[in-house]
Design goal:
2 strands, 28% helix, alpha+beta
């Protein structure tokens, strides 16, 4: 179907069209933020947070390598207050989406 033909491998096709056989990886904007921080401050153990329509996040370990297990903060519980606001999309409370 069209989805399988046009969407599933879209990033692989873009990479091939733009750079030939050069490896390309698509990552979360928060991960890009963490990598930029590692380059700027010259050490790891960094959490990058990007603020946009949501909150992206990335974590670089002590060696400056991405861990890949933090990518979105918008659904992470941040507030233990039972009266915390809810977010307009999921109606969930205590989330980064309504706090950051």
């Amino acid at each position: 179907d069209v989805y399988k033909e046009k969407v599933v491998d879209i990033f692989k096709r873009i990479a091939k069209d733009l750079a030939g056989d050069v490896p390309l990886k698509v990552i979360n904007d928060g991960e890009v933020t963490a990598l930029a921080a590692v380059q700027k401050i010259k050490h790891g153990n960094v959490m990058g947070i990007s603020m946009g329509s949501s909150e992206g996040a990335g974590y670089a370990n002590k060696d400056g390598n991405l861990m890949g297990w933090i990518s979105e903060l918008c659904y992470v519980k941040l507030d233990l207050n039972p009266k915390a606001p809810t977010d307009p999309w999921t109606k969930g409370c205590h989330r980064g989406l309504s706090h950051l």
